[in-house]
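#struct-help
A.M.: can someone run this one for me? Single chain, 163 residues.
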Amino acid sequence: MKNGRKSDRELARTIGVSQPTITRARSRLEKEGIIKEYTMIPDFRKLGFEIMAITFLRFAKELTDEELNEIRRHSKRVEKERKESLLMAMNGMGLEHNRVFITLHKNYSSYVKALTDAKTFPYVDSSSIESFIISLSDKSHFQPLTLSSVAEYLLKTKEEKKE
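D.P.: on it. Structure tokens below:
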């Protein structure tokens, strides 16, 4: 998780096991779906995004599979038109909402357009839309989005289990 570019040979050397052991373990983790993809998390600010928004909303009713597919199709159309970056869209519950989006925006104007678009989605209670806006230029962020912190947690948990 700290460096997805390391080869099986390098990982084996670091951990102190054979390269085939690493290859078998990695293959098993991929097959079980524990490892879903190998990716990076770029510096979004350097890619030209000024704002990250966490937006909560509520569907007006429980949706059928066909209605969810309609929303997905609508979402794809909006995404093509706006060229915003959608990091995550998931169901959940809390704060009187049942859907959350994490999006990146070039500027405040594009964020406002995205909010306007969200109100056009079928089955969305437009009065329920609320956002938390993060300036990616703010130098006082405590823990930016990385997977290194998750990797460190897993290592610490593994060491505590040994003790």
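A.M.: thanks! The mean pLDDT is 84.
D.P.: also worth noting: The domain at 1-40 is CATH 1.10.10.10 (Arc Repressor Mutant, subunit A).
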